[in-house]
Amino acid sequence: MYYVGICTFCEQGALGIRICSSENHALILCDECDAVWKSTDLTQKPSFPEQPHLPCPCCSGNLTVPPAHWARFGEIYQRGWVSIVKGQTTD
Question: Where are the chain's structural domains?
């Protein structure tokens, strides 16, 4: 998983770039508390999709069920988000 920082809400989780099940939306998702940001502006307040399904806040697609996935480098590059990537986890 490519991450962009640590969650400002729970202060524990890595913020990964997630692609929703419709494969149209890239979001920032905390891998601990499931806080979601619709853009790279992490100064905005996150939203918290309904558990346990985690619907995408943009289209109501799913954030957990395939084809939803952590973004691959090419997907991040296509969206112009490479500059915010801090690293990659080994998971």
Answer: 2-85
